[in-house]
Design a protein that fits this description.
Layout: H1 2-21, H2 28-38, E1 51-55, E2 70-74, H3 75-81, H4 86-93, H5 97-113
Antiparallel strand pairs: 1-2
């Protein structure tokens, strides 16, 4: 049994190094926004299950924990998908791939439109008509 723990510990350390090296930047607030938007497993639609962070493009294939790449998955889907490419995995499992992709695109669009509460709010620049705003006439410079 000690061998299993050693292998598991090595695998966990390797995974932690891959995640750290991937440049992941998902905040807890973003994760909660993702959970609120999906409200269930993104793949099978299981409701009421404990949801885990799953990278649509796995870290081992160049993915990162980012707002655009993370979806909530039930334990079964997350373990089954492992590091497979999402569309081929969904076809193999006979899950509704087009529905997932459309929903994912809708949710990404809505999440991008919301201001991020963890970073300072960006105030859009307002165009000032020439000659107004700073007391100088830009045409006379």
């Amino acid at each position: 049994m000690a061998v299993r723990q050693t292998r598991r510990a090595r695998a966990n350390r390797r995974r932690a190094r891959r995640v750290a090296a991937s440049g992941s930047d998902l905040t807890e607030e973003q994760w909660h926004r993702i959970l609120d938007a999906w409200a269930r497993c993104a793949y099978c639609g299981a409701d009421g299950a404990a949801l885990q962070k799953d990278c649509v493009l796995p870290i081992s294939r160049g993915g990162r924990y980012t707002l655009e790449n993370v979806v909530p998955a039930c334990r079964s889907c997350n373990a089954s998908k492992s590091n497979d490419e999402v569309t081929s995995w969904m076809r193999r499992r006979r899950l509704d791939e087009p529905r997932f992709l459309l929903r994912w695109a809708e949710i990404l669009q809505s999440l991008r439109e919301l201001p991020d509460q963890s970073s300072p709010m960006r105030i859009p620049r307002i165009a000032v008509p020439s000659g107004e705003g700073n007391g100088k006439n830009p045409s006379r410079s």
